[in-house]
Design a protein that fits this description.
Length: about 675
């Protein structure tokens, strides 16, 4: 697991609104963070009149809060997450519940009373307190504020005078962004609170029987925090986001008396988006292959918070009265499903090439100083860790050439800075740059001499083929070290041609799958009647002795090298695909072995969800590698065709050169080639 990465479960807290008539069916255990609800039901399938019985529903949460103290709510639910955001993790705090249950009061609070400030103002205070107390961290803060109203996303911090318009959602590499979103830089808490109040004035509110200031939209307040950690010369830059989400409350029209047209439409849009949110949570809990994040604007914005790189806290607000018991049970069931979700949070480090370069340069200097001190204490003062100069390389090259020509012995080549130092039970090797440079120069000298030798032997025809030589009248083939030969196959070995009476023209040649035919009238007499060895010697002369032949041969070799690299890359991709396929089969086998899992078995459900997440990741990697393999195959075929075209062009140029010289010199091919040799 990378440094700073952690698998974390979504934390779920319950806050009960104070009521003068609490329901007797609700029982709270704040110590164990449990809620028990006694539901009265009727049983009529046993004969006789219906009889009442009590059905108990138990919900397990992370904490149960029954206080109006806003500071206690912040400390128990949000403080730890805000601290994590300041360390570089993404974080999200959401409030969920029925209309009028206290969600906006929990998130925003009563701004007229300082003690009743909500989570958002207290989080601002903690962020800017960190900024003021640690100026060396260079903390920079930006904020944005948006609302989702009737499936439209609106910017609450837009520049004054600009018309309000719905923002567009962009999704790239799994990250969701809003085109045109205003991100305001803020320097202190006062500026942040001022912008926050301005955004609050633009929110959509309305009144009904349950709440005089009911929010009619989902709102997301986001702080973007950039921070530097470490000493001034070697700093890591982290970027984190804190999302404060105030969800609109689900409501029933018959309980809120919202029979007016626009209120009814708003309630329908709110309930629809919250229904899509529950469907998304349910799909995440089951580990389905497709997660419906794009069903609504709200689920799209919460994609990273529910199943991505983020630490998330959900605060469920409920109204503990008999009249709202059904809504309370529904909210708690949603909270129970959210509690099973897990996210993967990492410290978000920003790439800083200049800072990384400075860090590496300083580390190199420190390591060199440490090595020099260690060598001095061990008595090895001649060891150098600096780069070799051009003068030193030239001197080494001259000594190697003298050693190769037997003018100097091996002992005269300096290798004194290759040491094996032992100190008590610790043994380590010091391999200096000079020794590595020696090996490289030896390789260069060896390759150069070998190339010159092969060229000389090829010119005189002294290189034996790797296999038995072909007969005199052999077909066009490939010989290692000689390129491809241009001998013509015997007449009885050639396939019949539709353009002739069963035999090919003497002026025909074969190159791979390509057939080039020349008219007999254009070929000087005696050119094609010579032996294949003579034609092959002439071909080597053209390929190695003419500028045109050398250029075309170089192009062919370059394409063949490129083809070899692409084939090796394709083999590596095939190995990756096979490994992914094996792992997919293994994970499927584990899922199948678990069989049917009971809905109340949370541990097994979490294991199954983890396996399904792993299966999705493996399938994604498999499809990605498979698509990449198809692309590489197309590239391989294209390069193969380029190699064939290059060989065809080389043969065509050779025959033109061969015919032209034979024609203008006016002599038989045997005499002509003898004079050329």
């Amino acid at each position: 697991m990378p440094h700073g990465e952690c698998q974390c479960r979504i934390k779920v807290h319950l806050r009960m609104r104070p009521s003068s008539k609490p329901s007797a069916a609700l029982h709270f255990d704040e110590t164990k963070a449990m809620v028990r609800i006694d539901v009265q039901k009727k049983q009529s399938n046993v004969g006789g009149p219906p009889r009442s019985y009590t059905d108990q529903i138990v919900f397990s949460l992370d904490s149960v809060i029954q206080t109006t103290n806003q500071e206690t709510v912040f400390d128990s639910c949000a403080k730890k997450l805000v601290e994590d955001v300041l360390q570089g993790y993404h974080g999200t705090i959401m409030t969920y519940g029925q209309v009028g249950s206290g969600k906006t009061f929990t998130m925003t609070g009563d701004m007229k009373v300082y003690a009743h400030r909500g989570i958002a103002p207290r989080a601002m205070h903690r962020i800017f307190q960190e900024k003021e107390t640690k100026p060396e961290a260079g903390i920079r803060v930006q904020m944005s504020y948006v609302e989702v109203y009737n499936e439209g996303i609106y910017d609450l911090l837009q520049t004054r005078g600009e018309p309000a318009g719905s923002l567009m959602i962009l999704e790239e590499n799994g990250l969701v962004e809003l085109r045109g979103l205003t991100k305001m830089p803020v320097e202190n808490e006062a500026e942040a609170l001022k912008l926050y109040f301005e955004g609050e004035k633009l929110r959509s509110y309305s009144d009904h029987s349950l709440n005089q200031m009911s929010s009619r939209s989902h709102c997301v307040l986001t702080f973007y925090i950039e921070r530097r950690t470490g000493i001034r010369t070697l700093q890591d830059v982290t970027e984190a986001k804190l999302n404060l989400v105030d969800l609109a409350g689900n409501e029933r029209v018959k309980k809120t008396s919202d029979y007016r047209g626009h209120l009814r439409r708003e309630a329908m849009a709110i309930n629809k988006s919250l229904t899509f949110l529950e469907q998304t949570v349910y799909a995440l809990r089951l580990g389905q292959g497709y997660i419906p994040f794009r069903q609504s604007r709200l689920t799209t914005l919460l994609k990273e918070s529910l199943g991505g790189n983020c630490k998330t806290v959900l605060i469920v607000c409920a109204w503990p009265e008999d009249y709202f018991l059904d809504e309370t049970i529904g909210s708690l069931r949603f909270a129970q499903r959210v509690k099973l979700l897990r996210t993967t949070a990492i410290i978000n480090k920003k790439l800083d090439s200049a800072g990384t370069e400075r860090r590496y340069a300083k580390e190199i200097i420190e390591l060199r100083q440490e090595l020099a001190l260690k060598d001095a204490l061990s008595g090895h003062t001649r060891i150098s860790y600096d780069e070799l100069t051009e003068e030193a390389k030239t001197e080494l090259r001259n000594k190697i050439e003298a050693f190769i020509t037997d003018e100097k012995e091996l002992d005269q080549i300096p290798v004194e800075n290759f040491r094996q130092v032992s100190h008590s039970s610790i043994k380590y090797h010091v391999v200096a740059k000079q020794v590595k440079e020696l090996l490289c120069l030896f390789k260069e000298a060896h390759v150069s001499i070998r190339a010159q030798l092969e060229k000389v032997l090829a010119e005189y025809g002294l290189i034996p083929p790797p296999e038995e030589p072909p007969p005199e009248d052999s077909g066009v083939g490939e010989l290692k070290g000689h390129g491809f030969h241009v001998g013509i196959a015997p007449l009885d070995a050639r396939p019949e041609s539709s353009a002739s009476s069963g035999q090919m023209s003497p002026g025909a040649k074969r190159c791979g799958v390509t057939m080039l035919t020349y008219k007999e009238n254009d070929v000087p007499e005696g050119v094609w009647e010579c032996s294949s060895d003579i034609r092959n010697d002439a071909f080597l002369e053209f390929k190695n002795g003419t500028e045109e032949g050398q250029q075309q041969e170089a192009i062919i070799k370059s394409k063949e090298g490129e083809l070899q690299i692409k084939r090796r890359y394709a083999r590596d991709i095939c190995a990756t695909i096979n490994e992914a396929k094996k792992e997919i089969q293994g994970v499927k086998k584990l899922i199948k072995e678990r069989g049917i899992i009971k809905p109340d078995d949370c541990a097994e459900l979490e294991k199954r969800a983890s396996l399904l997440t792993r299966l999705r990741s493996l399938k994604s990697a498999y499809h990605k590698a498979y698509n990449e393999l198809k692309t590489v195959k197309v590239d391989v075929e294209a390069v193969q065709q380029e190699v064939r075209d290059g060989k065809e062009m080389l043969l065509e140029s050779f025959y033109g050169w061969f015919q032209t010289l034979a024609k203008y010199r006016g002599q038989e091919t045997e005499d002509f080639l003898a004079s050329v040799a």
